[in-house]
Design goal:
Largest sheet: 3 strands, antiparallel
Shape: elongated
Order of helices and strands: EEEEEHHEHHH
Strand content: 15-25%
Radius of gyration: 22 Å
Number of helices: 5
Structural class: alpha+beta
Number of strands: 6
C-alpha cells in the first residue's frame, strides 16, 4: 500500500476493524517514511462470469435493475430492492467462492424475491427459468401454495 502523502511503497497497520455490515475491513495505517496516517477499506472481490465468458465485478445495482422490472406495478419500494440486493450479495459471499456464474446469481435472487413479493417472483422466475408453457406457471404456483399451507400448519402448531 503506497503512502498517499509521500508515495513510499510500504505502510504499517496500526488498527483493523470489521465494518458494521461485516463485508469489509477498515485498516488504519502509518507510513514509516513520513509518519503520515491514513485509512484503507478492504473487501474481498466477487466476480461474476457472464454467459459470454467475460468476468465482471458483482454489482448490487445490476441485481436491483434486473429485479426492478419484475417488481413493476407491485408494492415494492427502492429500500426493499436495496435490502434484497444486500441479501443476495451476502448469500453469494457465504458460498466462499470468488467467482460465480450468472445462473448462480439468479438462483440466489429467487429466494429473497419470493419472500418480498410472490407476483414479482413469478415474473422473474418465468424469464429466468425460461417458462415456456402454462404448466410451468401452474407448477410454480402449486409450489407457492404448498409453501403457504406448510407455513400455516407450522404456525398453527405453535
Amino acid at each position: 500500500m503506497h503512502c498517499p502523502f509521500c508515495r513510499h511503497p510500504d505502510s504499517r497497520v496500526i488498527d483493523s476493524r470489521t465494518s458494521d455490515d461485516g463485508l469489509s475491513i477498515r485498516r488504519r495505517r502509518q507510513c514509516p517514511e513520513c509518519g503520515g496516517r491514513f485509512s484503507t477499506t478492504e473487501t474481498a472481490s466477487l466476480m461474476v462470469i457472464k454467459r459470454s465468458g467475460v468476468l465482471e465485478s458483482f454489482s448490487r445495482d445490476k441485481v436491483i435493475a434486473g429485479v426492478r422490472k419484475a417488481c413493476q406495478g407491485r408494492p415494492v419500494t427502492e429500500a426493499d430492492l436495496a435490502v434484497l440486493a444486500q441479501r443476495v450479495e451476502e448469500a453469494v459471499r457465504q458460498t466462499g467462492v470468488s467467482q460465480l456464474d450468472t445462473n448462480e446469481i439468479g438462483l440466489a435472487i429467487l429466494g429473497p424475491l419470493r419472500d418480498l413479493d410472490e407476483v414479482a417472483y413469478l415474473r422473474f422466475a418465468s424469464v429466468y427459468q425460461e417458462f415456456d408453457s402454462l404448466e410451468d406457471f401452474e407448477r410454480s404456483i402449486r409450489e407457492l401454495r404448498a409453501d403457504h399451507a406448510n407455513a400455516e400448519a407450522t404456525a398453527g402448531d405453535r
